[in-house]
Design a protein that fits this description.
With 111 residues, the protein is of the alpha+beta class. The chain has helices at 26-40, 66-78, and strands spanning 4-11, 45-53, 56-62, 87-92, 102-105. It has one domain: Alpha-Beta Plaits.
Amino acid sequence: MPTMVVEIHVPLLPTPGLPDGSHPFPWIEEIEDFLSDLEDQGDVEIFNEGEEDGDVYVFFVTGAGEGNLLAVASRVARLPGVPAGVVAVVSNDEAEEFGLGRRVTLPLPAS
């Protein structure tokens, strides 16, 4: 049976106002640290290393129900410095490529 994976697609937009020589996407490391902390707490599992895919950077989480995974994705979208336009894609570990599942606009409305 396929394992549910939520892909978090973040637009590859450079952070404005960074000093010369800085990494243009400092939010990538911030998101990786955030997800790693959640993984350490047992809330989610990082399914794969994040990777660039065209004009987005994709992070992958699994190990919880859809609602919890989408809540994590929504928290990612709200992190300081993360560009607007983040979407989640509900997929599974058997998908042949990124972005084939159901798209969910983030952040989710506060409940």
